[in-house]
Amino acid sequence: MEMERMHLIVNVGSTSKKYTLYYGENKSLNFNITEDEKHFKNSSKYIFFTLKKKGLIKSHEDIYIIGFRIVAPGVYFLENRVIDSNYIQRLKLSSEMAPLHIKPTLNEIQSLRKIFTKTKFIGVSDSVFHKNTPNVAKLYAIPSNETSKLQIYRYGYHGISIQSVLRKFTNLPKKVIVCHLGGGCSITAVKNSRSLDTSMGFTPLEGVTMSTRVGNIDAGALIYLNKKLKLSPDKLEEYLNTKCGLLGLSGASSNLKKILELNNLKSNIAVDHFVYSIKKYIGSYYAALNGLDLLIFTGAIGEHSHKIRSLICKNLESLGIILDENENLKKVDSEGFIHSKKSKVKIAVLEPNESNEILREIKKF
Fold first, then answer.
1. Does 174 lie in the same domain as 113?
2. Where residue 279 sits, what CATH number does that domain have?
3. Of 51, 85, 176, 197, which cross-links 190 as Cys (Cβ 3.0–4.6 Å)?
4. Are 242 and 189 in a shared domain?
5. How many Cβ atoms are within 10 Å of 291's Cβ, its own excluded?
6. Left (φ > 0), alpha (ψ -120 to 50) or beta: where does 3 sit?
7. Range of the domain at 308
8. Are residues 118 and 185 in the same domain?
9. Nearest-CA neighbor of 273 among 315, 308, 222, 302?
10. Pairing between β-strand 175-181 and β-strand 185-191 as defined by DSSP bridges
């Protein structure tokens, strides 16, 4: 019988770092370090000493594989791969496309590699699930030579989360829409268990209104905005990622719960904009799927905000989407179905498990 091995899963965000230690299939440690904590910058050393202090490891050699969630544009990153010097070099090059998403992960990889020198590192792509979306969904309407030369495709993200919630079904319905709603948000159409289309594009900036990300914006408006603000490319990207979305619309907060509590003109516009942007994707994907069997809400907002779920489903009866408000109210800290008996479409609230999904993938190496 093969000896149980230890695997460490690392999920780096812009404001937090999540770590999960597995002994075999069992979680031994699971915690989150946010940017306001003193250990955030030196998290790799903190993780190592914490694991030793708790007696979970004796040395750096005890961790067999460290798996990372990788959010990066580029054809190379449409595969799960061993993180070696070539991978790191490609990640550095790719950071020019989306520096705010790649640089924190790259820094964490390099820091951990200095400590866990004998451990295998695996990058698990957040875009693999969307790899085979059809060209009508994958391509932008720019000259094809630029598309292939610069690898400008709609890669899509949140694939690890989506795969983890779909895995909960033994018999997944044919036509599914997944609403991953959190700090970052995406809507994905799934047909026959495969990604048909998704709202995020070349980077996680495209799509619905998000906490601080702009979502969809006319390219002409973007050019004009940049002329007036006189920002460098990096500063413009930072602006579109951190100053816009719910924060920009409300002028007060990026936290949806706080915005709902404000209940003033700007905050109400922000909420309406957020909900409307999601409704439009549900409607368009209903058309692309030629119907709908199952609507899934996941992510922090999708799981915990019954108010937002109710607003999204309101007036979607013509699509066969009818919420049971009593069941919806109950599903704040639990999973389950929230559709009415009259609803033609099943509606589910599900918690994603990205760390389990990443563990499943790295064990293939």
1. no
2. 3.30.420.40
3. 176
4. yes
5. 12
6. beta
7. 159-349
8. no
9. 308
10. antiparallel
Residue 130: Cβ within 10 Å count: 27
Residue 358 included in any domain: no
Longest Cα–Cα distance of the chain, Å, equals 66
Q: Which two tokens stand for residue 113?
A: 């590699």
Active-site choice (36, 62, 84, 126): 126
DSSP 265: H
Residue 148 counted as domain residue: no
pLDDT at residue 101, as a whole number:
81
Tokens at 208, concatenated: 């619905």
Same-domain status, 114 and 245: no
> Domain for residue 133, yes or no?
no
251 Rama sector, left if φ>0, alpha if ψ -120 to 50, beta otherwise:
left
324 is catalytic: no
How many folded domains does the chain comprise? 2
Helix ranges restricted to H, 141-232: 144-150, 159-166, 219-229
CB atoms within 10 A of CB 28: 16
Other CB atoms within a 10 A radius of the CB of residue 65 amount to 20
**Is 79 within the bounds of a domain?**
yes
> Mapping DSSP to helix (H, G, I), strand (E, B) and coil, where does residue 193 land?
coil
Within the chain, residue ranges assigned H as helices are 43-53, 85-94, 99-115, 135-138, 144-150, 159-166, 219-229, 233-242, 245-250, 256-262, 265-289, 299-304, 306-313, 325-330, 354-362
CA–CA gap between residue 90 and residue 104 (Å, rounded) = 15
- Digits of tens for pLDDT over the chain (365 positions)? 346 899 999 999 767 899 999 999 888 888 888 878 888 888 999 999 999 999 999 999 999 999 999 999 999 999 999 999 999 999 999 988 877 789 999 999 999 999 999 999 999 999 999 999 999 999 999 999 999 999 999 999 999 999 999 999 999 999 999 999 999 999 999 999 999 999 999 999 999 999 999 999 999 999 999 999 999 988 999 999 999 999 999 999 999 999 999 999 999 999 999 999 999 999 999 999 999 999 999 999 999 999 999 999 999 999 999 999 999 999 988 999 999 999 999 999 999 999 999 999 999 99
